[in-house]
Design a protein that fits this description.
Elements lengths: L12 H10 L4 E4 L2 E4 L5 H20 L3 E4 L3 E5 L3 E3 L3 E4 L10 E2 L4 E5 L5 H5 L1 H6 L7 E5 L6 E6 L5 E6 L5 E4 L4 E4 H4 L16
Parallel strand pairs: 4-7, 8-9
Antiparallel strand pairs: 1-2, 1-5, 3-6, 4-5, 6-8, 9-10, 10-11, 12-13
Length: 199
């Protein structure tokens, strides 16, 4: 999570939106506190671009949209608003508001040392309350590692780890087939090293 807005204070939702409107920085809103969203590394930006490029054609064929970190997600009305790194929505209702998305099918966060714990815990715990959400991706920017959480028909979250150069992120309901080598293309991020004897 980023740093609290300066000076730290409690914001009403109306004050939070006013802050967003007049500030060049972006802020996530958590239970009345506004947290600045920091800048991204080159690897973060390139990984995000590769994921968006892979998702856009199959999602558009289904009438959906692929959005990036400049779009605000309503996780819990009046309480929790975030800027996911990548968001996919197929819900026509998300075309009605020019600024807010409420019905994501997929969310992806590109991990950094500052945000990894928050993205895995508090943020994911809140994301799980979104009825529309089916896929949550945690993507490393230090090695070829993607953690994929998929909600099954029974509502349980199934975990899949992708971490070898030959792994492919396959999400049939989105028509996505993305090899890790394409996700990390042009990033200078190396595949995860396997120690001898542990293969």
């Amino acid at each position: 999570m980023g740093q609290p807005a300066t000076p730290p204070r409690h914001y009403t939702l109306k004050e939070y939106f006013a802050l967003q409107e007049k500030s060049a920085a972006k802020y996530e809103y958590v239970e009345g506190e506004a947290f600045a969203v920091g800048g991204a590394s080159l690897a973060h930006n390139l990984i995000k671009g590769n994921l968006v490029a892979a998702l856009r054609p199959p999602v558009r064929r289904q009438g959906g949209r692929v959005l990036d970190e400049s779009v605000l997600l309503v996780v819990r009305a009046n309480a929790f608003y975030t800027y996911p790194d990548v968001l996919v929505t197929l819900d026509p209702a998300d075309r009605r508001d020019p600024y807010l998305v409420r019905h994501p099918l997929l969310l992806a966060e590109i991990l950094s040392s500052a945000t990894a714990e928050y993205d895995r815990t508090e943020k994911f715990a809140n994301y799980q309350k979104l009825p529309s959400l089916r896929h949550y991706l945690l993507i490393s920017q230090s090695a070829w590692v993607v953690e994929w959480f998929r909600r099954d028909a029974a509502g349980q979250w199934v975990y899949t780890l992708l971490s070898t150069p030959d792994d492919v992120l396959e999400i049939p309901d989105l028509g996505l087939s993305l090899p890790l080598r394409e996700l990390y293309d042009d990033t200078d991020v190396a595949p995860r090293r396997v120690l001898p004897g542990l293969e």
